[in-house]
Design brief:
This protein is an alpha+beta fold. It is built from four helices and two strands; from the N terminus they run αββααα.
């Protein structure tokens, strides 16, 4: 009988075992492709409304130890207390991102990731 570790090593190059599955009455490793890039650079880590989702932030932190990346401040500015930490983060992000070069719409007329992020952070 093979040990669990031996099952995990049974996958091909470029694949990793993600648990076990039953195939023809036997337990075999469930081999899934290993992506070459982190989730924050792929669609899985991006929020369709702009910015990164939790998975994207988690993968960014794993790839960049010591980083302090946080989720967006989505609270409307009128609801934020003036001078609070969240208000300062929002104001700083809007100033930095708003000054970046780049179009707000792509060639198809859809908003770019920059435009989506600014909208999510309530930057006018």
């Amino acid at each position: 009988m093979k040990s669990f570790d031996e099952f995990l090593e049974a996958c091909w190059t470029g694949y990793a075992a993600k648990g076990l599955k039953r195939k023809s009455g036997r337990l075999v490793p469930n081999c899934v492709p290993v992506s070459e890039t982190a989730a924050w650079t792929r669609r899985e880590g991006k929020n369709p409304e702009g910015g990164l989702n939790r998975e994207g932030i988690r993968s960014y932190r794993a790839e960049h130890p010591g980083s302090k990346l946080q989720t967006a401040v989505t609270t409307p500015p009128s609801k934020l207390k003036a001078g609070s930490k969240a208000a300062k983060r929002r104001k700083s992000f809007c100033a930095r991102m708003g000054g970046m070069a780049g179009a707000m719409k792509d060639e198809n007329g859809k908003p770019t990731r920059k435009a989506l992020a600014l909208r999510k952070w309530n930057c006018n």
